[in-house]
Structures are given as C-alpha cells and as structure tokens.
Amino acid sequence: xxxxxxxxxxxxVQEKEAVTLDCTYDTSDPSYGLFWYxxxxxxEMIFLIYQGSYDQQNATEGRYSLNFxxxxxxxxxxxxxxxxxxxxxxxxxxxxxxGFQKLVFGTGTRLLVSP
Amino acid sequence: xxxxxxxxxxxxxxRGQQVTxxxxxxxxxxxxxxxxxxxxxxxxxxxxxxxxxENGRGNFPPRFSGLQFPNYSSELNVNALELDDSALYLxxxxxxxxxxxxxxxxxxxxxxxxxx
Lengths: 115, 116
Description:
The structure holds two protein chains of two kinds. By secondary structure, chain A is mainly β.
C-alpha cells in the first residue's frame, strides 16, 4: 500500500505568490514524522521542514509552513512569497516510529515559479 | 551544504558489470542509508548500515550490498547490473540507527548511474 501520496505532478505559481503542495499519508503507527524535501536539478535532497505526529502546532520554517491535518492524514507544504529559486521537485516523506532511519517518499511535485 | 559527499558524480556501465559507489558521511554520523531514485520517482530505501553492520533493508535483491568503514565512509555495490538499475543513488547520514522520528537525515548530492 502506498504510504505517501502526492497527487500533483506539477504546479505553477507566479513569483511572490503563495503555493500549496499536497501530501497525504497512511500509517497505523501513532508515532511518526513527516518531512518535506526540495530537490533541485543538481539532485541533492534539501531538508525543508519537519512535523511530528504528536506536535500540537503546525511547523514553520521561514517561508515554509506545514498544514498538518492529522484526522485527514494530510501534511501539505505551503510556500509563501515564492521565489524563482523555489523551482524544483518537492518530496513529502515519512518515517514511522522509532525504527531505523528509513524514509518513505512520495512521487514528488515539480514546482515552476514564473516571473 | 550537508557535509555528505558522494563519488563519482556520474557513471556509465554495461549490463552485467559490477559497480561501486562511495559516500562520505558527516563526521560523527555512525549511520548511513542508501536510496535509489529512478527517473520521475521518489527515492526508495535500499538499506541502512550502523557500526559497519547492515541493520535494515528495503525490497532490493542481494546483488545490492554495502560496506561501512570506521572513518564514516561507505560503499554501495551492485553486481550483475541490469538496465533498470539506471538511477540516481543517494546516501544519507544520520546520528544513530534509531531515534525520534524527527532525527534528520543529511543527503549527499547523489551518483547518477546509467546502465547500457
């Protein structure tokens, strides 16, 4: 069963606008962590933001915020004030419990920011 | 910059050959994980090494194997290469093999392997 689902293959946004990238997940483990990574064309996975299953508040990191809706099992990434440099692939990932460091990734969303 | 390096950057091999990819983890990180990312897909977990022992494996055949060394370097070896092994291979280092879900993995830039 697919554990991370990203339904948007591609998204377009104009510079300075906000954009939401969708992510839903599936797990029966009460303890889990959700991550968002940015992957530019160079290939390196850049960590953006983390949300824990027990965190009471939505995570924020600068222009990135995570809209965490636990009952709906969704963890959408919101990028405010988009910049041209935000154009990249974005991956949602999950790690369950306190097991080994395996991350399960979605298929990604390609974001294109236009001037 | 995550402090994780990988070599080579690109590699072209022929079907049936063997390949070794290398990773240098962040200093102090005794756990390394390897991922395979096929074109247009998210990374898939291959295996994890902790203190030079494999302690977790994804759905990959035994011809995918690894080594981890005390100096925070590691290798991914793939035998009998197949066309479907063409992918970006990422290594990621972390502080420990188990921990809070928040423990971050630091990824290297990857090695792009092409099998012809």
